[in-house]
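Before the break, one more example. Copy the sequence into your notebook; we will annotate it together after we see the structure.
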Amino acid sequence: MMRSKEVRCCCIGLLLLVAAYVPVTANAEEVGFCNAAVESLTGDVYANPERWKSLSIYTLFTEGWNEPWVSPPTGEGYAPRQGWINASDGVFYRLGIGTFGYSNGAERLGDRYTGGLTLYAPLSRRLEVQFDVPFVDSFDGHTDFGDLQITPRIILSETKAASESFNLSIRIPTGDKDQGNRSAVLTPNYQFWTNHWKGLVLRGGLGMAIPVHNQSDTGARTAIVGNFAAGYYFTEHDAAPFGDFVTYVAANYSQAVDDRDDSKTTSLSLTPGFRTHLGNNWYLLGGVEVPTTKPKAYDYQILSGLMLVF
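Here is what the structure looks like once it is written out:
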C-alpha cells in the first residue's frame, strides 16, 4: 500500500537503529534487549512496584535499554500515570484501546465515523512502540481503512513527580486520499507528564508534522503542533465503576509553516474529557472536541474509547 520509498527506508532504518542499540555499560537489572522486551510485554509488570526506579536524561544512552519495563508508581500527589483521549502521553503504558469517533460536519461537509485500535507495547524501560490502526474511516458515503501510524517512543527522564518522552510518529499512507488520507507524515515531538499536588495532572507536548509524500494530492502541510491538558483525579482506583475518575480539558494547536497554500493556517480546538476505571482493568474514556478557529472541518467531534490494561 505504501508508495514512498523514502518513508519506507526511514521507518525501517529508525526501528533497526533503535532495536540494535546496546548500551556499553551493564548493571544487575540488565537482561539483554530481547529478554527485556519479552518480559516487558508478557511479564507481571505490576506485581513488584519496588522494582521501579527513576531514570535520568544524563544516562539516556547507558541505562534502561536492556532492562524490563516496570509500571511506574503514582505521582508525587497521588494521581496515576494514565492516558487521556486527545492529550499527550509523556508516559509508558501496556494496554490496548478500541476507539470510536463521530464528527459532525461543518457547513457543507459530511459527517465522519472512525473506529480503530491503539496498542502501547513497552520493550524496555527506555523504549516503547505505539500502534494506531484505523480499521474504519467512513466519510461522505465512502468507508475505507485509514492511514496506519507507528510511533517509537523513548523515555528521556522519569521521576515520581514527572516524566518526559521523545516520540517519532510515522504516518503510513494506507488510506484513501478522497477521505483526506494517504499521507506520509513524520512527526517528531516532545511530551511531558507531571503530578506534584494531590490529583492535579498537567501534561502536554510540542512537535512538527512534516509531510514527505503526496502533499499536492492530500493538501498536507508542514506544521507546528502542540498540546496542553490539565485534569484532576477525584476517586481512588478501587472505586469502580468510577475508579480513578478524572475530568480534564485538552487544547490542541496547529500552525502551518510552509508556503504551499495562502489559506488560513492556524487551528485551535478544546476537548473536555473524562476517564474512569470500570473494574477488572477495564476503562472507559470519552471527550468532545470543539474547534475554536475557522475554517472548521467539523462543528464538534465525539471521541470515545474502551480500554484494557494487561
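The chain has a mean pLDDT of 89. The first strand starts at residue 95 and ends at 105. Try to locate both features in your own notes.
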